[in-house]
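Take a record.
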Amino acid sequence: MLGEPEELKSGLTISDLLNEAPTSKFHRRAVLISGMGFFTDAYDLFVIGTVAAIVTIQWHLSTTQTSWVTGSALLGAVSGAFLFGRIADVIGRKKVYALVAAIMIVGAISSGLSPNFAWLVVSRFVLGLGIGGDYPVSAVLMSEYSNRRDRGRLVGLVFSMQALGLIVGPLVALALLSSGISQPLTWRLLLGLGAVPAAAVIYLRAKMPESPRFQARVQGQGERAASEAAAFSEGIVNASDVSGDGLRRMRLADFLTNPRMLRLLAGTAGTWFLFDYAYYGNTLSLPAILKGVDSNASLEAKLAWTLAIFVVFAVPGYAMAVMRMDRIGHKRLQLIGFAVMAVTFSVLGAVRQLTTTVVPFLLVFGLSYFFVEFGPNTTTFVLPSELFPVSMRTTGHGIAAGVGKLGAFIGVFLVPQLQHHIGLRGMLVVAAGASILGFLVSLVLPEPARRTLEEISGEDDHARPAEERSSPPRARPRRERLKSASGSTFSSMIDQKP
């Protein structure tokens, strides 16, 4: 299943150097390139709530048809995550990186030109294929460039670009609605503008090399990986005296039958499914939820309330997650977030007055949004990028993301029906139940914070004594080897602060 490692010149690998590299400009560049794609994903996914509110009236859509408008991109994301996550482990992360951005451009433009309901649903599904494919590639490429100490923060920064998408979407919608442009033209512009950042993504990603870990460990191109890593990092990762990491290949059949891999898939995919049901079901249905709180509110007022929730609660939550998750622990932060979500949704469901007055509702619902971002919305994206072996990393993340988006798709259809049949409070109690289940499923996952990707996945097994190889992988004192590596300019940098 796994090939034997090559003999290394200095006893170090490219992965070793990346694991201990100081957080530097090349990490920030990678965050920007990966994050721009995720900003596009977030804008395209969340702007549809406003669009659906307009086209439902314009085209006289039923509740089910409206759910298809809001949910078709999520259904496409399920397929895209599965498909492109696997392809990225076969042909490489970079090739898929550009392809999914091109698909998003086609989907965004086609959506904006939709002449009818069916065309819009199909176009949004195509857009979702690109969005779904971007999830595993953006997360894993950043994870594989990261050092062990700040990996959660760096991958979290990529995900935090979702916050910008959450804010820009309502801002653009408010600007268009208040400009005097007709509502039919407004929703077309909202959807079509999603092609602009996607085009910028293609340009930026053309300049980013393939993941050095993937090149060295899966493709067997150690020298090329070393050269491109040195160039991209401007010499910070100087691997001139380091050979390749040795081939690391796992067959798909072995991956899907390995008990440990199945447990990790159940943990990452299960928590993502449960979270996305509650999060996307509530977020994409937020105009309808706010209408339940105040039936006389205008579309502009509901947009303003939505924007306030994002700015006051969600953005600080993203920021806190990025700053603190490596210290708190990625799994532990997920547990905290699910616990607070369960409490806030339960309180909203139990206290009637909170769902009949705007300000109290926004405060308690907003608190849940803070811990959504300072919790499972970030960690369900980060954890699958860390836990799987390098040759199955985007496959595993793609499965987790795809199952997660399936939960979102179900939520988009189920939440409006629940609100109609059991009321807003009953729907929130169901969301609380999903949060409790998410907490329990999270317990099966290991804590990856501040450990190397190779330690977490067990791919350092070849270097451990035979009697230890049956036990779980643990941290190994490699910093001394890094410091003593002769001829590497990197050795003098590993103790620098970011």
Summary: The chain is about 75% helix and 0% strand. The chain has one domain: 14-246+259-456. The first helix runs from residue 14 to 20.
